[in-house]
Amino acid sequence: MKKILLDMTLDELKAYLMGLGQPAFRAKQVFSWLHKGASYDEMRNLPAALREKLAEECYDQPSQIHDVFPSQKDDTVKFLYALHDGNIVEGVLMHYHYGYSLCISTQVGCKMGCAFCASTLNGCVRSLSAGEMLSEVLLANRYLGEKGKVGHIVLMGSGEPLDNYDNVVRFLRLVNDPDGLNISLRNISLSTCGLVPRIEKLKEEKLPVTLSISLHAPNDTIRKQIMPVANTWPINELMQAVRSYVADTGRRVVFEYALIDKLNSTPEHARELSKLIRGLQCHVNLIPLNYVEESPLIPASPKTVQTFLATLEAEHISATVRREMGSDIGGACGQLRRRHLEGKA
Ligand code: SAH
Question: Domain segments of the chain: what residues?
């Protein structure tokens, strides 16, 4: 099988190229080209024979943009990326006052089974390698061209990042490499449905990323109805891991909370949530549920969302309602890929 050059750290690339009889300085040249999103054809300062040899053994850029869906309402662009094996994942490029932020996928599909999420409907096909995740960023940069560069990344596309732990951690180190994209880890959010042992492991990596927890419920009874992961790791264990993460890293944690009609969105639920997270250095991101055709769950009304927000604020909990961007292009996780699979994209 062909290797993916973008998976390699600079040191690994050095070892690999030296094995091909190349001088030590070559690795930095190749690394720098790769992390600009360049193909072998563009690497003009490399000997032609080396480029040929590399092309036989490795992918330069392992993915390409399969399709682009610009929003008519705002600057948001949705990408379908084609991976080298024909699998498709999606990414969303958003334009904020602080620059461009890209939401990337970490797996083809997802196996977590959350009731509201389109990514998980067909299970998980496979995990993405570190280089494939990097490629999502590089392709977005190429798409932007002179307009700018991706400065912020959220791991909130399809997949559960902590179910693809080693590749995700490798990706984080690669994307932060000063010889590569050099994106600050503080500008990266990693979102998880709550794999407790992996949160504990991540804490030990000492990477200053923002941890986002998809909580979506103030107690286990409700959480179990919509998130199977709650059967394995109850809320008290999750909260213990989060508290320890915050204490050790000093980083504020973000709780994602999708408001679903009746199920989790009354003022009592808001007060129960406040109690659960009181005293923790945190922020609550309220998401009006994105309607998914295949799911019976109904989004809470705008009025319910506002009341929920006001109740949290009255309890002195820092919270905002996530601005809906690109809602006309299949905003919710996994919806665009799903439509593509059904031949409707
Ligand atoms: N697996 C990770 C990251 C991917 S999902 C996680 O669970 O956090 C990114 C975020 O979108 C999560 O908070 C997820 O719960 C949320 N999400 C998924 N489907 C949604 C929908 N239909 N409406 C609103 N939010 C949704």
Answer: 3-59, 63-341
